[in-house]
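the two lines:
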Amino acid sequence: MTPNDPPKPRPAAPTDQSAGAFLFPHKHLLGIEGLNPIEIEGLLDLADSYVEQNRRANKKKSVLKGLTVINLFFENSTRTRTSFELAAKRLGADVINMQADSSSIKKGETLLDTAITLNAMHPDILVVRHSESGAVKLLSEKVGGAVINAGDGQHEHPTQALLDALTIRRRKGRLGGLRVAICGDILHSRVARSNIHLLSTMGAELRVVAPPTLLPAAVEKLGVEVFHDMRKGLEGCDIVMMLRLQRERMESSYLPSVREFFHLYGLDTEKLAAAKPDALIMHPGPMNRGVEIDSAVADDIHRSVIQEQVEMGVAVRMACLDVLTRRLRAEDAGTEIRP
Amino acid sequence: MTAPIAIINARILDPERAYDGPGGVLAREGCIVAAGHHVTKDSVPSDAEVIDAQGRCLAPGLIDSRVFVGEPGAEHKETLATASQAAAAGGVTTIITMPNTNPPIDTVSLVEYVARRRGDDVLVRAVPMAAATKRLEGREMTEMGLLSAAGAVAFTDGRTAVADAAVMMKILKYGRMFDALLVQHAEERSLATGVMNAGEMATRLGLAGISVFAEVIQVERDVRLAEATGGRVHFADVTCAKALDVIRAAKARGLQVTAGTTPPHFALNELAVGDYRTFAKLSPPLRAEDDRRAVIDAIKDGTIDVIASGHDPQDVESKRLPFAQAAFGAAGLETLLPVSLELYHNGHLSLLDVIDRLTRRPARLFRLPGGTLNPGAPADLVLFDPDRAWRIVADEFRSKSKNSPFDGHPTQGRVLMTVLGGRIVHRA
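prediction for all of em together
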């Protein structure tokens, strides 16, 4: 099996008429915590079908025709914002991008004032990223449309966990029973939290590998096993998820140096040898080569699925935009949909 | 000249004499003349205004030893006048105010500004604590002698601990000349950079935690400084079992160490933060359930001496923010009595003991004349129904700020009347 030839079978690409097949029971997507396995599988199945569609020449559909999506990013992000923008456009929505540094936020407007102002323009979906945990939830309480959390502080980044899960499921055919190690700065990572919630809900065996200074309190209560020794932590793993390490962690004494971090926790060929021979290497990007991951490993086409994660990201976001507008679209069309 | 006032047919709660029984209180010229079972309809003077309590509880007015006000500097959050209205509605007749204002209460004129405000618009006694260090910066001690003489009943940097051990040691040594009480916020600052209790809940919410060790380390250090200097240290808000153990041991060794708590810390735990509820964002933070129970045990065994409201009014703009950016603090004057009465209703303390922690003990600790029904004491009284069930509605607070973690909370015990110096200042 080559990396570009994932296991079959694949579901057929969705048609516009299939929109009623899966009814997501939540108004917003604020986090993975609280979603059940059926909801997660439903999102992944739909995303899977969008992967097929995105590989065709004509990628555009009219599922969200006439709907408005606002990407509201209080924290800089090119990758996630672009992915959401592409997802919305491929579904035919009108998309507006708002970056905090170019808006009134800098002029002292509060988060809720911004929310209320934007709400008056009747967006159907707000995709929000904010540097504070809980900020997206706070904003969701003040708007009429659906809200997708595109990352809030150190809390959750649900679409990242979904795209990681889709990547894994397509390669391994399942999520349950896999041994997954999440490595690096767990303390500050919303990606780690969302992945922990999703993978534990789906029955994976979860490990976190990090120095004690980069682990949050009582993390084992989230259903993970803690390792400080990376070689032991990676033993027998099917999936190795690396996290980005922010440089400022050195200044605040979480770590002594990049060199020491790489020595202990940088993923290189030698440490990776502890994992299963067919273990997949994942990274949410952007990578710090030579900090948390060695280039030789990151670019290993047989092991690294980092580029594939980016591709899955668009499909997963299309699925999220799709399910969160189903009720609205059905109401608009005057049809009733049932779960 | 005011007419004598007599409240008769009451259930008297007088912790000073450990009396819980039928009787009345007679007051004249602002002071108590007589209190007890012998004060009856037939014994009071004919010119007295007589109030029939119909068997409700009559106790000394509450003395609240931790009240933040916005005056001067943040009058939009609370003025001394609005705080006093909230106090009167809550049965509190003395508020001991914190120096965390703008400018901070660190000079004689500012102490006098607070101490002399009682009058038409300030309904209760406002008694200031002064800053322990100039501008609350933790570096230079304030004029403790002059400030004491001007009416400061204690010294504190309020929201923050005096962090520098050498400064703290000198304050305690120097303060002994004035029998000064140093009130410490028990949190080691470099360890207290989070926004809620450290643990699983904070980890799930992605919020930075404050470990109980931030509190324990501060308490341990200050117990040693009290030992070294013979000074008096009061830990205003102790929230965890480990710190309470240290205080319990220090008391057993005879050190002049005391402790306080606030209703949220014995009535709620960290789960109240829930989905980023900023009204439950407190400093020190709401702790885990085991620690909440330890606080109740410490109130029972006397390790915790006093219950204060910790009243910290914050406007909507300071609270309707992402959790980490929101202000700490909860309004508490109007919920102090009912939430404290939960200790009685839940069988932890007798009614008399609950009142003791709210009246006699803070009066002794801060050397105030109230907290008793002895003849000659100020006629500061609260009449309340301990059993009346109601639901706390923050929007109905007299306080300018409505930031209560108890909003919507069903409770028992309602203030019916508050008397200050023989004058009725609140009637439900």
